[in-house]
Amino acid sequence: MTVDGIVNDVPLQFLCEPLVHVMHTPTRPIIIRLRIILAHLQRGERVTAGMMAAELHASLRTVARDFDYLVHSLRVPLTYDYRQKSYVLTGEIPPMLIEPSEPGDLRQ
């Protein structure tokens, strides 16, 4: 994935598969980690770096980098709510990052 948001050489299965079929290994590709984080945020769930690190079997530093990448590179409207002590969406997720509703729906 390039910084400009252009997906290169990423198997379509990673972009279109439901999250229940993701890899369950100690190291996941960044695109899988980002999709899992975004899925939690879209459902309105409380999302903390600690919770995501535990679920993704990643370090807190890795998850912090993932949040930074979402905000600064992919321009996801995400902020930290100090009252809730968790990350929250403050706007809509860019269309490229939304999971297709049906197979083949690439939401252009």
Which terms summarize this structure?
single chain; mainly alpha; globular; disordered C terminus
Tell me the series of helices and strands, N- to C-terminal. HHHHEE
Strands ordered across the widest β-sheet: 1-2
End-to-end gap: 17 Å
What is the oligomer described by this structure?
single chain
Query: Going by CATH, what is the homologous superfamily?
Result: Winged helix-like DNA-binding domain superfamily/Winged helix DNA-binding domain
- The pLDDT mean sits at 75
Number of domains: 1
Q: In what range is the share of β-strand residues?
A: 5-15%
User: How many DSSP-defined strands?
Assistant: 2
Instruction: Name the CATH architecture.
Output: Orthogonal Bundle
Low-confidence stretches: 1-25, 104-108
How would you characterize the overall build of this protein?
The chain has a single domain, classed as Arc Repressor Mutant, subunit A. Helices cover 37% and strands 7% of the residues. A two-stranded antiparallel sheet has the order 1-2. β1 and β2 form a beta hairpin. The two termini are 17 Å apart.
Please outline the helices and strands:
Blueprint: H1 12-16, H2 30-42, H3 49-56, H4 60-73, E1 78-81, E2 86-89
Antiparallel strand pairs: 1-2
Helix pairs in contact: 3-4
